[in-house]
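Action item from last week, closing it out:
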Amino acid sequence: MPSDVTVVDHPLVQHKLTLMRKKDTSTASFRRLLREIAMLLAYEATRDLALREELIETPLVEMTGAQLEGKKVVLIAILRAGLGILDGMLELMPSARVGHVGMYRDPKTLEPVEYFYKVPSQLEERAVLVCDPMLATGNSAVAAVARIKKSTPGSLRFVCLVACPEGIKTFQSAHPDVPIYTAAIDSHLNDHGYIVPGLGDAGDRLFGTK
């Protein structure tokens, strides 16, 4: 496995991912499963967030507890399929700040084209998680992270549902400092830029547009 890539191989994640891969899984089920897996991915991707001590009172005694240190986490979805991961992460971190990067892949060149960018200001002291279900060619993820880096975030992590060796290589060549969290590393990329075995077009399956 490449360095700085965490495969979340928890049995619940793998079970739900298999259900998502099935071609006859309904849009509603696909959407629900992605939201559930996103919560588990977020759990792993935030494992090393800094904590501070805080004196509190339980119904019985006074004690020292732990609270997240620093400013709110920022979740940035690469549109449109990244919204599916964003929804699940927000259930775990409802007070997180949210950003959106609009990217589409040119069907001929497979290169990303940006059409929208709106993220919270002052990312300097914030942990930022960038979300996109598929790390396929890696081009969209590379472009989105490069754009976000201009705001000098405190830390950056990339979270996806499924990756492939080609996408990981492309991403790590451009951003070796950004760790990747994924539920699976699949076999390869086909001639049309789809991950194999994969699960098809995540956006189309998430929104029922195919």
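Closing note: DSSP finds six helices and 14 strands in the chain.
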